[in-house]
Design goal:
- The chain is α/β, with parallel strands linked by helices.
- It is 41% helix and 18% strand.
- It has a single domain, classed as P-loop containing nucleotide triphosphate hydrolases (Rossmann fold, 3-Layer(aba) Sandwich), CATH 3.40.50.300.
- The strands form two sheets. It has a five-stranded parallel sheet with strand order 1-5-4-6-7. Strands 2-3 form a two-stranded antiparallel ribbon.
- Strand 4, helix 2 and strand 5 form a beta-alpha-beta unit.
- The radius of gyration is 15 Å and the shape is globular.
- 26% of the residues are buried.
């Protein structure tokens, strides 16, 4: 399962971001995660993707799920430990493996990729740079069973 708040911001006319829609999208992602974990009859690995916009998270998620369709991938920037904690806690509540995937993509590459996105998905350079600077490395102390570093 691919959980991504951006999926709930997409419309027939492209991605539409407002504060209200963003809050609702995140709420729906947590509902999806809870539902999937609570109706789970087998163990799943839950991957929490960490990295700024255009770092390669969604591409990795799609490729990973082609090979491992039963896994759960939570695909969002999740730069702060405090943002990741509710996802980790929910995953642990259902006794699932929680794996961090940290995208160590240089800012220059993220900025280049961002400019190649469809216009409705481009993030401002200022916002992307701020997210990049705010990235907190994942740690086992947070509750991750494994940490994977992706250099792109």
């Amino acid at each position: 399962m691919h959980i991504n708040p951006d999926h709930y911001l997409d419309t027939l006319h492209g991605r539409l971001w407002t504060l209200e829609r963003n809050v609702a999208a995140w709420r729906q992602c947590f509902t999806d995660l809870h539902y999937t974990l609570s109706h789970n009859t087998q163990n799943h690995d839950v991957y929490i993707l960490i990295g700024c916009q255009a770092s390669g998270k969604s591409t990795w998620a799609k490729q990973h799920l082609l090979k491992h369709p039963d896994d759960i991938v939570f695909d969002a920037i999740l730069v702060k430990k405090s943002e990741r904690q509710p996802i980790i806690e929910l995953t642990k509540k259902f006794n699932q493996n929680c794996i961090a995937v940290y995208f160590q993509t240089p800012l220059k590459i993220c900025l280049q990729r961002n400019q190649q996105r469809p216009q409705d998905q481009v993030v401002s350079e200022h916002a992307l740079t701020n997210v990049y600077k705010a990235l907190e490395l994942p740690t086992h102390k947070e509750g991750f069973d494994q940490i994977i570093i992706i250099d792109t």
